[in-house]
Design goal:
204 residues; 17% strand; two-stranded antiparallel ribbon; alpha+beta; four-stranded mixed sheet; 26% helix; globular
């Protein structure tokens, strides 16, 4: 998403979702997935001097014009994460949808279903992700398939059914372990390891 212009006046505000759910493995800062960065409370306390990976990361909500304020991750329960994939031997941009709360409720959201259908019809690479726990990587399932494309043209009910199938598939897969490769700036929160990768994130 670095190449996408940011939407004016659309800022993180009090949203600290990326400060909790994502793993960061960089020489300036190391953080396991599902661990709240100690610098993040209602906002980032070191925002003006935040580390490079935090400065460079932009969630898709801040760059996609069609998403209104209700799509801010802490409000929607959805983190749209800039990603990439291999297509024909080339790396191309992709987008991963991470669900932060109850998947049954989130996957029934008409706005999410319409967004997925539109992205698939436009042949934009799209994944459904399942966040990792501390020490484990997240999983993702590609949503661009002939079945999903046909569903996107017919209606959101079929799109929802395929999303639910993808979520069930991800739920039955083991998360690969993740060992941080950098050392020296491993941040820890006061409560250390959480029981859920999205624990402590509110929505609504």
């Amino acid at each position: 998403m670095d190449s996408e212009p940011l939407i004016p006046d659309r800022t993180c505000g009090e949203c600290t979702v990326c400060c909790v759910v994502l793993a960061i493995d960089h020489e300036e800062i190391q953080k396991d997935a599902g661990i709240r960065c100690p610098h993040a409370n209602k906002c980032c306390r070191i925002y003006a001097r935040r580390p490079t990976p935090c400065r460079e990361f932009v969630c898709a909500w801040r760059a996609i014009p069609g998403l209104d304020d209700d799509w801010r991750p802490d409000r929607s329960g959805v983190l749209l994460y800039p990603d990439s994939c291999e297509v024909g031997g080339k790396t191309v941009p992709a987008l991963t949808i991470h669900l932060l709360h109850d998947p049954e409720t989130t996957l029934a959201n008409p706005s999410l279903l319409a967004f997925v259908a539109h992205q698939v019809r436009e042949d934009r690479r799209l994944y459904l992700g399942r966040l990792g726990y501390p020490g484990f990587r997240h999983l993702r399932a590609q949503l661009n398939s002939p079945q999903m494309l046909a569903a996107a043209h017919r209606g959101t009910a079929e799109v929802r059914a395929i999303l639910e199938q993808a979520w069930t598939f991800l739920s039955n897969q083991p998360h690969p372990q993740h060992t941080l490769s950098h050392r020296g700036n491993h941040v820890r929160s006061a409560d250390e390891v959480r029981t859920s990768p999205s624990d402590g994130i509110s929505a609504g």
